[in-house]
Amino acid sequence: MITLYQLEHSPFCIPIAAIFKALDVPLRKVEVSNADRSKVIKLTGGAYYQVPVLADGKKIIFETSAESQDLARYVDSKFAGGRLFPAKVDGLQSIVITYLENEVEGVTFKLVDPKYLAGFADLVVRTSIIRHKERKFGKGCVDLWKKEAPILRAQAEKLLAPFDRTFRHAEFLFGPQPVYADFLLFGILGNLTYRKYNPIPPRLKALVAWEKRMRGFRFA
User: Fold this and answer.
1) Which of 123, 170, 172, 191 has a beta carbon 3.0–4.6 Å from 11's, enabling a disulfide?
2) CATH 3.40.30.10 domain locations along the chain
3) What is the CATH number of domain 87-216?
4) pTM higher than 0.85, yes or no?
5) In this structure, CATH architecture of domain 2-80
6) pLDDT > 70 fraction of the chain, expressed in percent and rounded
């Protein structure tokens, strides 16, 4: 059985799990501690410490760069028959993926992290994660994101609005069935709405309907 090492709320783990579900391929999920990545470090021989990581027998797959889609492309080539990365939309999809990973997720995670971190009763674990965030985003970043939540919500709605306009006229981003960019957007929304921390902006009704459609989608 394929094993996915994940953080349940991760916007990059949710898409991989959703793809396996849509393909009706059994998947074992192993939760990785946000404060202790030793499991992933040992699994990858010290080459990687983030998630997701996929174990297919003795083959271990993880991202080789911040811009790669190695896991999704592996799943596409072995299980999905090229449906996640069809050649005819490769150029446009790469633009959409970059926008989602950099612009959209770069705002939405800031609406999630303060609430997610507040749920850790263990002071050591919570502090370890906060310090990790501060090394990347600056001291006091989590408190700042909490304070700026109304501004971030407005930014998120603006960034998601083009997708809402698309789904008023199309079932999925590039045709009658989802490609990887659809699953990535689904993962970002899954992160945003994790534990009902935040809603999908209610004015984006077509996006809300698409998210429900994605939940029920299965490849034929």
Assistant:
1) 191
2) 2-80
3) 1.20.1050.10
4) yes
5) 3-Layer(aba) Sandwich (3.40)
6) 100
